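User: I've been trying to design a sequence by hand for this structure and keep getting stuck. Would you show me what you'd pick, starting by listing the structure so we're on the same page?

Assistant: Good idea, let's start from the same input. This is the structure you sent:
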């Protein structure tokens, strides 16, 4: 058998298999971008913090969640490229000064992998201020527990973390403290308080419902 015979064998039987070898699939980038706006005016919100979760390979074939934080620019715009090895990604939360923090889920802003995802994310402005003045006047107890519940804060946060919880605050006889809390106007904000821990909050020994107007600073006094 001559060299020409081996060339024939190579090109007829082997070369077709080599030439049919497929290139590895091209992985396209997953981009999450968009704009953060005021819920009412639709104006841009700069310096908003956007938390993005990604499921990435870990050890022993398992996966872990990695959270990245990015900021919107002065025009409210943001952009982030997810790690190429991520199996899935989602926007977890968005927050900005003077606005109610928003906790979101996969359904509200679904992220498609290997695609450019462009979102408009509205935040609700907290346009009133509740100032709570605390004073240990009677020295019956040195602890006071306070919870402030605002409907907008709860709705945007989607869980109990949307309530302001101060537990406990320790004040000696004659001492005072002030809590400054931004809230949404035109709805009832509820204050719960007592000298002992209470849960659920509706079991608090004392509570009060307050209606704040837009731009109002309401002073509320708790003497104990």
């Amino acid at each position: 058998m001559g060299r020409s015979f081996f060339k024939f064998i190579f090109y007829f039987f082997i070369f077709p298999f080599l030439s049919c070898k497929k290139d590895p699939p091209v992985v396209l980038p997953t981009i999450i971008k968009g704009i953060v706006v005021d819920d009412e005016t639709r104006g841009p919100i700069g310096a908003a913090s956007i938390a993005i979760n990604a499921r990435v390979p870990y050890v022993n074939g398992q996966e872990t969640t990695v959270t990245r934080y990015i900021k919107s620019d002065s025009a409210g715009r943001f952009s982030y490229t997810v790690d190429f090895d991520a199996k899935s990604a989602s926007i977890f939360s968005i927050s900005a000064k003077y606005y109610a923090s928003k906790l979101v889920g996969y359904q509200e802003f679904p992220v498609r992998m290997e695609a450019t995802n462009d979102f408009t994310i509205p935040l609700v402005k907290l346009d009133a201020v509740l100032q709570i003045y605390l004073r240990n006047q009677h020295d019956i107890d040195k602890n006071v527990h306070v919870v402030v519940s605002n409907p907008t804060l709860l709705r945007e946060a989607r869980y109990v973390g949307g309530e302001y919880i101060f537990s406990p605050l320790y004040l000696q006889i004659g001492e005072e403290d002030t809590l400054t809390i931004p809230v949404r106007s035109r709805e009832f904000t509820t204050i719960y308080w007592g000298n002992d821990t209470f849960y659920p909050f509706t079991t608090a020994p004392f509570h009060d419902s307050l209606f704040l107007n837009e731009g109002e600073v309401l002073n509320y006094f708790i003497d104990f």
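That's my pick for every position. To get oriented when you compare it with your attempt: The two ends are 107 Å apart (CA to CA). Residues 128-223 form a domain with the Immunoglobulin-like fold (CATH 2.60.40).
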